[in-house]
Amino acid sequence: MLAATVLLLCVALYPVTLTKTALFAPVWLCFLLLVSTYLEARIAVIVSLLGPIAVGLVLAALSSAGLISESLFVNYFGNINFRMIAFPSVAIDVYNDFFSRHETTHFCQISLMKYLMACPYDEQPWLIIAKSYPVGNMNASLLATEGIASVGSALAPASALLAGLILSIGNQTSKGLPPRFVILSSGIVTQAFLNVPLSILMVTNGTALLFLLWYFIPRQPFAEASKTGFKARV
């Protein structure tokens, strides 16, 4: 009952945020629940990525054969295969093209930095990109924002390494928790990871709070459930 209430609250956020993440969050979480229940954790993670892609490819074949309507194929493929999977990679290419010919942001997309240094831009990177490319506000991952946009392509790997170290520390806070619990509790965060900078991911999207909750959650109930032969509930 509690889980159903949470899923309904996710949908209720859509009229406020108008984001596809809020709209499709219940479906995505139910899918993660399904695969994490019947599959080993590592396989479940792989299936959570390849499964939606495979469905899109099957729909493409069925649409070409005239077995399903083209609108069904376009709606699914556009939202899943393109927007969820391919678009984050496209964003990296666009950011690389733009900032190879323009000054980098020097991390000025982080509000605090504007008080510490002179910033070359007054707007966020995705708004800057929107003025040069007809793609709307192109939100992008840390690889594009804290990487390419902030320090340029040459130093982007170093920035990505630092971001990876931060996330690895957060990952360590989940040690001792059931894999299924970790997969479900981070299900929406992993989607945001592909589309927002690390600073926004940690603060606005609540990833820092999630890491904190992982750290303080008692491990004993899960350990006792494992010893008695019962699968820990999430």
Question: What can you tell me about this protein's structure?
Answer:
- The chain is mainly alpha-helical and 234 residues long.
- The chain has one domain (16-218).
- It is 70% helix and 0% strand.
- Helix 3 crosses helix 4.
- The longest helix is centred in the middle third of the chain and has 30 residues, at 70-99.
- The protein is globular, with a radius of gyration of 20 Å.
* Radius of gyration (Å): 20 Å
Outline the biggest β-sheet: none
Following the backbone from N to C, one meets helices and strands in this order, namely HHHHHHHHHHHHHH
Extended strand count: 0
In angstroms, what separates the terminal alpha carbons? 13 Å
Keywords: Membrane, Transmembrane, Transmembrane helix
Transmembrane segments: 46-68, 148-170, 200-217
Could you list some keywords that capture this structure?
mainly alpha
In short:
The chain is mainly alpha-helical. The chain has helices at residues 2-12, 14-17, 20-38, 41-64, 70-99, 113-116, 125-132, 143-151, 156-172, 179-185, 187-193, 198-202, 207-216, 220-227. The mean pLDDT is 85.
Give a topology summary:
Layout lengths: L1 H11 L1 H4 L2 H19 L2 H24 L5 H30 L13 H4 L8 H8 L10 H9 L4 H17 L6 H7 L1 H7 L4 H5 L4 H10 L3 H8 L7
Helix pairs in contact: 1-3, 3-4, 3-10, 3-11, 4-5, 5-8, 8-9
